[in-house]
Amino acid sequence: MVAAEHIANLADLLGEGGLLTGRAEMSRYENGARYDAGRAAFVARPASTEAVSTVVAYCTRHSIALVPQSGNTGLVAGSTPDESGTQGVLSLERLRSTFELDLDNRTLRLDAGFRLSEINTRLEPHGLFFPIDLGADPMAGGMVATNTGGARFLRFGDVRRNTLGLKVVLGDETGTVVECGAGLRKDNAGVDWKQLFIGTSGAFGIVTECTFNLERLPQQSATAYLVPRSPEHVTVLLNAMEEQLGTYLSAFEGMSGAAITRTLAHVEALRNPFPGGAVPDYVILAEVSRSWPRRESEQPLETLLEEVLAEAWNMTGEPLQDAFMGPPQEMWALRHALSEGVKSAGYVVGLDLSFRRGGVMPFRAGIIKILASEFPTVTICDFGHIGDGGVHFNLVVAREADGSVDAARVDALRDRVISMSVAQHGASFSAEHGLGRRNQHFYDRYTAPKLKSMAAQLKQATAPGPLGSTRLG
Fold this sequence. Notes:
Blueprint: H1 4-14, E1 19-20, H2 23-30, E2 40-44, H3 49-61, E3 65-69, E4 87-91, E5 99-102, E6 107-111, H4 116-123, E7 128-129, H5 140-146, H6 153-156, E8 163-169, E9 177-180, E10 206-213, E11 215-216, E12 220-228, H7 233-245, E13 249-256, H8 257-266, E14 282-290, H9 301-313, E15 320-326, H10 328-343, E16 347-354, H11 360-374, E17 379-380, E18 383-384, E19 390-397, H12 407-425, H13 440-446, H14 449-462
Parallel strand pairs: 2-4, 3-4
Antiparallel strand pairs: 1-2, 5-6, 6-10, 7-11, 8-9, 8-10, 12-14, 12-15, 13-14, 13-18, 16-19, 17-19
Helix pairs in contact: 7-9, 8-10
C-alpha cells in the first residue's frame, strides 16, 4: 500500500480537489467501460502540465506506480488500476485550459482533457472537425495514447495521421516535459519523437497537450446498406466502389446480422430498416461524402451512389444481392448503437482485430466453423471497419444463473480466436484499442524478443519509473 505520508504529500502538491482517496469517490476511476476493475491507492487530478510533472516526479522518486487515465472508455484494462491497491490513477480530466484554433493552419492545440464530442461541438461553427468517428466519447490524451481509428478511417486515417504535435511528461525523477512537433505537416529535421507516444498507452510518458490536424465538415453525404451475395463478395464490392468513387467513399462498415438483431431488440428508438423485418446475415454500411455545399451543376451524391450500385448489380458474379439507400443519420444510428446492443445480450468477449483487407472475410468464415464446433453456445456478434481491415470480433457468452461466467472458458475462447487470427492470418490483436492488462499476454507471446528489448531500452530512457499498465519490454 502507499504510505499515508506520501498520500499527504501528494494532496499538498495538488491542492484542493486534486487528490481523491475515498472509496466512493474513486469508484468511477477504478472501473472501466467493460468489466475491468481494480483498486486504486489514490486518484491524482492535476490541472496543468506543470502539476502532472510534479506528481510524476514525486511518484517516480518514491517508486509509486501510476496508471494514466484519460476518458476511461477503453476496453482492454489499459486505464484502470489492478487489484493490488498499490497503484495510483493519474486522471487527465482537469487538463482543460488550452483550446487554441489556428484557422489558417487548420489545426487545434488543446489540453488532453477535452472530450471528442466537445472538441467537435466547438469546431462546428468554423466548418471543421477532428475526423475520428466513434461510438464512445474519449478524451484527446487517450485517443493519442491508444491511436484511435474509427468508422471513417478509410477517408481520414487514425489519430496518428492527424497528430502534428504533442506535449508529454516523461516518467522520470524530474517529470521532464518535452514538446514533440510544432503543428507542422512536414518536418524531417530529426527523429519524429511524437510517434513514440502515440499508441503506446502511456508507457513512455503522459500526453498532456496535443496539436491536431482538422478537416472540413462534410456538407453532403449519402448512405446505403449493401447486402453482399456471399462473404467472398465483400472485398469485390469494396474494390469496385473505390474504383468508381475514389476519395468520395468515406466509410465501408461491416455489420453481422446477429449484432444488428440484438441491437434492434435492445434500442427501442431504432427502426428496423430491412424489408419485412428480415435482417440479412451480413450488411455493409457505405457512405459517400463531400466537404463543400452542392453546386447546381454537380451531380447529387445520392444519384452518384445509385449509379455505382446499379453498376454493381451487373458485375460479373453479381456480388450485390440487395441494396437500399436511406437517411445518413438513421443509418449511422444503427451502426453506432451496435456496441451497446451487443453488450445487452450477455457477457461480451470483445476482440479488436486487424487484417489485410482481403483477409477479413476468410478469417471470419474459418473461425465461425471452429467456434461452432468448439464453443457451440457462443454467439458471434461482430462488426467493424471492413474498409481498413478492422473487426470488432465480439463473442457473446451466456451467463450462469447467478450472473457469473466461466473465466477459464472465456480465456480459452479469447486465446483460440487470437491464436488463429495472428498465427494463421497475420493479424494484429489490437487494431485500435491500444494495449492493456487484458492483452499483455498476447503482446508477450507475439512480439519479437529484439523488439521487446528495444522497447525496454526506450522505457528506461523515457520513463524508468513504474508508469502505465502495459509492459512493453
